[in-house]
Each structure stands twice: as structure tokens, then as C-alpha cells.
Amino acid sequence: MDFTREVLPKPRNRCCCYFDHRRRQHQCTQTQAVRLAEETTRRKSKTMASSSCNISRIIPIFVCVLVFASSICPVLSSKPGDQLPANQTFRAGEELQKLKIVRAHLKKINKPALKTIQSPDGDLIDCVLSHHQPAFDHPQLKGKKPLDPPDRPKGQNPRNSESENFQLWSISGESCPEGTIPIRRTREEDILRANSVRRFGRKARRVRRDSTGNGHEHAVGYVTGDQYYGAKASINVWAPRVMNQYEFSLSQMWVISGSFGDDLNTIEAGWQVSPELYGDNYPRFFTYWTTDAYQATGCYNLLCSGFVQTNNRIAIGAAISPTSTYNGGQFDISLLVWKDPKHGHWWLEFGSGLLVGYWPSFLFTHLRDHASMVQFGGEIVNTRASGFHTSTQMGSGHFAGEGFGKASYFRNLQVVDWDNSLIPLSNLKVLADHPNCYDIQGGINRVWGNYFYYGGPGRNVRCP
User: What is the pLDDT along the chain (464 residues), one digit of tens a residue?
Assistant: First the structure.
């Protein structure tokens, strides 16, 4: 901050002017000024002498009072508990540095908006030029623009989806202009909730899909043992209760390749409730990717350079509405992920023909070719914050055996084969790693094809 110092004008030499009532005339002489100055000096000397005497008498009394007061009333700063920590200055500097890093990261991921839309849930949706989105910060995408739509898999018949409206921010009728994409604005508090700026927008490290490491628990259906070029499912949407900031509940599909070691590649999409990432308990549409088992690559949504969005009507990370209710209306979203046979990129489609965008093939190692496993289902985090199993819900919060309208479901499960054709699943397997907390039951019929119910309440008498 710049401070302005006021410069005062220097005084000029002037004579002293006075008015003598006896002579009734105005005089201004240098001699009289000198006499007045001498008289003033004599008066000041007397005053100072008098003050000096008074002060000399007061000082001993004042000292005595101080000594007496200190003996009966200890100085506040002498209390150990009231002393400021020795490293307070260091901590203040550390916090200031953290804020600088947070704001620099916000500047990196929040791109300039042509228009901003206020969502009823408090989100700010920025309409950003499509070629300015975070993906184009990637060295291999700089200076390029989003690709044109690819050939869809055979058996996928896109319909006119203009009437589809499934996110809170668009309920008002506001939309982003052509040539822009809607991006949920990240705020300072969003990043401060994360363990670190570097880990913001990423899943915990080494979250294995075949184990319950790091407190992650699953109820999933999966296929393996073949070459897969995509997957499709309709996913029932609920708003499960999540017990604390460091837990989440999600329902998604995984397209997987590589081992479950450090070289795991995944492409993921679905809905999730994550208070840490979003600051609330709304179910939100999300995407994810990693190429090294969640260690240093990948992120949720558009929080890093990776996924390229091409759609101006869907905001990834925005809240979904409506949601399903127990013994009431049921709502699901249909998602399709597939590999473009011509260019090798992995595309995401929502509903009946709404292309969301794509993951460029160069992001991956194993998934540059094909997937070796496809998985569908639910996942929660159990932190055991109170010393026992969490009550965070999966799906609807009810067990699979309760069936339609009560338990959450996945239906019409399909995969994409080498010929870019959608085909029904064969040999679907189901697995719940904590069946007393969250379980799963599979089935097949003519209307839903391959399906399963899944979920649960978490902590209960059989899940202590």
C-alpha cells in the first residue's frame, strides 16, 4: 500500500503585530517582538521549574504505588497460559503462504467467464470459452480445440434430448452460450477443506478396487477376462446420508486396465455425495481418471488438465435434481463410456445422445488399447470417527433385498466390444466386501437386462 505524506509550507519570518488601545494605533516593530519573546521565555522557565518540583515529588509516590500493586495483582503477561506462543509469527507466515498457494491454484483452475449463473444450491456456474477450459493447459492440447463427435457404438440410438434437464443450476432456464461450457466455480473454502492443495480434487492414494484399503468399502458388479472398449448403465440416483466431511458415498462405473498396483488406469463416471469436495450433501454428477493408481495423475471433473468437455448444457460437479425417494418416485441417469475406434479417445455420453466430452488417449498407458475389467456399483469411505463403523449410507441407505422403490439399483448393464457394438454382459459377478453393512443382489430380465440392487445403512446390529 502506498502512503501519501502531506508536506507543510515552511513559515516565513514575520514581525509580531499588536494593537495598543492606549495609543489607539497599530504598530509592528521588530523590537517589541524581541521584548515579547523575552517575557515569554521568563514565564516558561518559571512554569518548568514549578513542574519539575511537582514531578520530583510525584515520582517516589508513583513508584511506591507500582511496587504495592505488583505485589497484590500480578501482571497479566506473567501467566504462562496468557503468553503468546513463540512460534506464532511463524504460523502466521505459514498460513499466509498457504493462502497465496490456494489463490494461485484458484486462478489456475477458475477460467475467465463470459457469463456466470447463480444456482439455487449456492453454486456459481461460469460459462467459459471451450478452448479456455483447464484441459487445454495440458502441453499436448495447448492451442487446440475440442474434437468433433465420434461414431457412436452400434446399438446406441441417440434420441432428441432437448427436454432432459437434470441439474439444479439449469432449472431457472439459464444456459451457457454456444462455444462455451459450464464449469462449477471452485472457491477458496473448497480447497481449504482438502488435506493439501496438491491433493485437492483427487481420491485417496492406492484405493484398490479389489480391497477395502484406506477405509473404502464396496458393493459392486463386475466383468473381467475379456477386452472391453466401453460400458453403459442406468444408475438410480439418491441422496444418501454422509456422516462427516472426510467420508463420501458414490455410485459409478469404472472402466479399468492394468494391475491393481501402481500402474492402474481407470475412467470413472457417476454420482457422488462428498462434503469434503463440494461442501454440502447434494448428489452430484462427476467424472474421474487416473493412470497411476490415484497417486500423482488424474482428478475429479475439470479440476486438472485431462477431461475435455464439449457440451454447453451439463456442468460436471453440479447437483442432480430430482432424486429418488423411499417408496416414491424413482430417478436414474444413463451413462455410456466408449473408445472412439478412429482416434482412440474415450468419450462420455449422458442420457439419450448428450455428448459430455472425452478423455484424450495420451493420458493413459494401458487404456490406450482397451480395458480389461468393467465395474459398476457403490463405494463409501468408513473413517470410524467414533470408534465404530460409520452410518454413512450407500445408495438409498437400504439393503438390496428390499427391492424396487426402496433399494438403489443399476440396470441395463452393457459393454462395448472390439467391433464398437453394445452387447449385454455375460457372467456378471457381484461382490460386497462388508455384506452386513452394504450388500448386493444381481439378476436379469427382459426389461432391465442385467441389473442389481445394492446398498445399505452402514452401522447396524450386524455391522458394529
Answer: 443 333 334 434 433 333 333 333 333 333 443 343 344 444 444 444 343 334 344 334 443 333 343 343 343 334 444 454 556 677 788 888 889 999 999 999 999 999 999 999 999 999 999 999 999 999 999 988 899 999 999 988 766 544 467 999 998 899 999 999 999 999 999 999 998 898 999 988 654 444 556 799 999 999 999 999 999 999 999 999 999 999 999 999 999 999 888 899 999 999 999 999 999 999 999 999 999 999 999 999 999 999 999 999 999 999 999 999 999 999 999 999 999 999 999 999 999 889 999 999 999 999 999 999 999 999 999 999 999 999 999 999 999 999 999 999 999 999 999 999 999 998 999 999 999 999 999 999 999 999 999 999 999 999 99
Q: What span, in angstroms and rounded, lies between the C-alpha atoms of 82 and 79?
A: 5
**3-class DSSP assignment, residue 273:** strand
Comparing CA positions, the residue from 249, 235, 313 lying closest to residue 283 is 249
Q: How far apart are CA 367 and CA 255, in angstroms?
A: 9
247 is catalytic: no
- Ramachandran bin of 319, using left for φ above 0, alpha for ψ from -120 to 50, beta for the remaining angles: beta
Q: Which cell is 251 given?
A: 455410485
β-bridge pairing 115-118 and 449-455: unpaired
Q: Which of 238, 264, 242, 267 is CA-nearest to residue 251?
A: 238
Q: What is the DSSP letter of 212?
A: -
Q: Which of 164, 217, 349, 379 is catalytic?
A: 379
C-beta of residue 282 within 8 angstroms of C-beta of residue 154: no
In b/e form, how buried is each residue of 317-338, taking b as 16+ CB within 10 angstroms?
bbbbbebbeeeeebbbbbbbbb
Examine the residue annotation and report whether 379 is marked as an active-site residue of this protein.
yes
Number of CB atoms found within 10 A of residue 126's CB: 21
- The catalytically annotated residue of 268, 276, 349, 402 is 268
